[in-house]
Specification:
Strand order of the largest sheet: 8-9-10-7-11-12-13-14
Helix content: 25-40%
Largest sheet: 8 strands, mixed
Order of helices and strands: EHEHEHEHEHEHEHEEEEEEEHHH
CATH class of the largest domain: Alpha Beta
Number of strands: 14
CATH topology of the largest domain: Dihydrodipicolinate Reductase, domain 2
Oligomer: single chain
CATH architecture of the largest domain: 2-Layer Sandwich
CATH superfamily of the largest domain: Dihydrodipicolinate Reductase, domain 2
Length: 333
């Protein structure tokens, strides 16, 4: 029996990221009714459809759309697949969730956003850091009186090897760029420098100015080992500062956030710390809820049902790619 309180959503793509980071969330989202799984490899489509309770599986997108008529479609794979399949879905007026990057180039992403408007549909982009609880808490605090006026944001992220800076930014750095916009608002200026050692080590550092007048720094880099990933975000305001560790914990640096007055002591660097629980429904400490994967799929399902506005949307994806291209141009790449 169909659950009328849930959105009938089909999933295109059964690769490693989809099946390791996204599919496991679906059983924990009451508003998400997995209607079908589609993948070019029949064995994968059938296996993951059965594993997560989808009644049907397909190897062709058009056949799936004809038969299932889903209310929404998740598309997770290479950027070229995001672009191709999203156009197939949007032209039917069906909303999409696409993993980042939404398309392999800025013009392609712009065309995708235009197609959504043309066909009366919409799309979300998989910027899961907006849904990581630590980042949500930080954004709320920044908007409060105690934090004061935002003056600066710095983000740094280290990942595994990439053979060129463009790919590193499109597939990895894009997350931190969107986090900058999520926490600080629109970015009006960006200038960048780049480094490459020719053996998988890349670095791009950019200075940015926000429309609010605040300034920021973006640092994304790659090494030779994916086990060495690193992420931190630091925000300063006129009343307090915040340190976000790997989108998992928030440390507030403010006299109003001391745990104790410390009578008779000179206290420096005391703070309040919000530690996100990493164990929701048995998930691992570095798992899906903490990192925002659950949140983005839950939000997509709610948006399909008309309960919330879709965000981040395809225009946010366009803006992230526009900033990447501006940084690459500034760095002479």
């Amino acid at each position: 029996m169909q659950n009328t309180d849930a959105a009938r959503i089909a999933f295109v793509g059964a690769g490693n990221h989809a099946t390791q980071s996204l599919y496991p969330n679906i059983p924990q989202i009451p508003a998400f009714d997995l209607a079908a799984v589609c993948d070019r490899v029949a064995e994968r489509a059938e296996y993951f459809a059965r594993s997560y309770g989808a009644p049907e599986w397909f190897t062709e997108v058009e056949a799936m759309l004809d038969r299932v008529a889903p209310q929404g479609v998740c598309i997770v794979g290479p950027a070229e697949m995001h672009e191709e399949v999203a156009h197939q879905v949007l032209r039917r007026g069906i909303p999409v969730f696409v993993e980042k990057p939404p398309a392999p180039s800025l013009p392609a992403a712009q065309a995708l956003a235009a197609a959504a408007r043309e066909h009366g549909a919409w799309g979300m982009v998989g910027f899961m850091k907006r849904f990581a609880p630590a980042n949500v808490v930080a954004k709320e605090y920044v908007a409060g009186e105690e934090f004061g006026r935002l003056s600066s944001i710095g983000v740094i992220h280290g990942a595994g090897p990439y053979q060129d800076a463009r790919r590193m930014l499109y597939y990895n750095g894009i997350h931190m760029l969107d986090l900058l916009r999520f926490l600080g608002g629109d970015i009006s200026e960006a200038s960048a420098y780049a480094f490459s050692d020719g053996a998988g080590g890349q670095a791009v550092v950019a200075n940015v100015r926000f429309a609010s007048g605040a300034v920021g720094q973006f640092n994304t880099n790659s090494g030779r080992d994916w086990s060495d990933c690193f992420e931190q975000t630091y925000l300063s305001g006129s009343g307090a500062s915040l340190l976000i560790d790997a989108s998992k914990a928030v440390e507030v640096m403010s006299p109003a956030r001391r745990f104790a007055r410390g009578e008779g002591l000179e206290l420096f660097g005391w703070s309040g710390r919000y530690q996100v629980s990493g164990n929701m429904a048995g998930w691992s400490p570095s798992g899906h809820y903490t990192r925002g994967y659950w949140g983005e799929l839950n939000h997509f399902a709610a948006a399909v049902l008309g309960r919330v506005a879709p965000s981040p949307d395809l225009d946010d994806g366009v803006e992230a790619l526009r900033l990447i291209e501006a940084m690459l141009s500034s760095a002479g790449l």
